[in-house]
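Input record, target 12 of the design panel.
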């Protein structure tokens, strides 16, 4: 299957933003994001450089990873700041073709270019498929089980 990975920083005109909004409505597990989430959120424009889409050659969006830079709240932490992965989703029709792997890999590599060598994310504890994906493919570790039903996962710390 042929697809391209593109930085969200190159994907900012009105048509692109509409497509992103549509994709997030269709494929986010919980609620979708509006256009503003892809433009005016805190962390812009670095956030867009750390975030990527996967597109078929017909330019259909099939996957998306949204990442940003975050600061540790406690001074005792070893590395500061780190890459926070907000969302990673692939259209179910295109899963199992390394799209998710390549999207996240691209964000991690881009983060390292900005000296972000630690990565963190929160995932629902019921989402064992995603948890195993992060552990098996990227060596993430389960760092904390939260009362909200989310697990904090970390790597590179
Ligand atoms: C989790 C999710 C993003 C994975 O996306 P995907 O494109 O299907 O995953 P990939 O094809 O890249 O990876 C799947 C497999 O390929 C393997 N793989 C692919 N490329 C690889 C590479 N270059 N090196 C090593 N392993 C690789 C992985 O080991 C993985 O193994 P599996 O077959 O046991 O699952 C996708 O299932 C999804 O969108 N889920 C719903 C949303 C979600 O849960 N998001 C995470 C919440 S935070």
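The sequence produced for target 12 reads:
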């Amino acid at each position: 299957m042929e697809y391209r990975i593109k930085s969200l920083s190159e994907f900012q005109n009105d048509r692109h933003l509409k497509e992103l909004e549509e994709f997030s409505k269709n494929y986010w597990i919980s609620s979708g994001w509006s256009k503003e989430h892809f433009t005016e959120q805190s962390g812009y424009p670095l956030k867009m450089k750390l975030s990527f889409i996967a597109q078929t050659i017909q330019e259909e969006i099939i996957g998306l990873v949204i990442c940003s830079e975050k600061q540790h709240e406690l001074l005792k932490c070893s590395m500061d700041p780190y890459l926070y992965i907000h969302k990673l989703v692939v259209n179910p029709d295109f899963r199992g073709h390394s799209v998710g792997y390549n999207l996240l890999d691209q964000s991690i590599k881009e983060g390292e270019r900005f000296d972000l060598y630690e990565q963190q994310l929160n995932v629902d504890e019921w989402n064992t498929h995603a948890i195993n994906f992060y552990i098996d493919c990227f060596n993430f570790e389960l760092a904390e089980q939260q009362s909200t039903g989310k697990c904090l996962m970390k790597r590179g710390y």
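The pocket of coenzyme A is lined by residues 29, 88-90, 95-101, 121, 123, 127, 129-130, 133, 136-137 (CB under 6 Å).
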